Description:
Number of strands: 0
Largest sheet: none
Low-confidence stretches: none
Order of helices and strands: HHH
Strand content: under 5%
Amino acid sequence: WYQRRVRVSMIKVIMNCLLPVVLIERSNTVYTHYKNKSTGQLSGATLALQWTQFSGRIFTSIMAGAETGFIMPLFINCFFTSIILGQYLWYKPNGKELKAE
């Protein structure tokens, strides 16, 4: 059973199915943050690490000669993570604690 391999065509199908999912999920997140004028409890460090991860994966995929269908979901994730990171910086509290009323 361990000698079976996944066909490249199956990986392409999975990556092509991933693209619309990424678009819908990330654009919904960006819109929700915009509508609420807040990013909730997101951590700036987490967003920075996600952006770094996607950037690194894009770079290594390009250097390895990966096809566009594999790189595109990574690029879109990196793009939307950049927007969410910008929203985090734009909407973040100014450091003052909010007093409970």
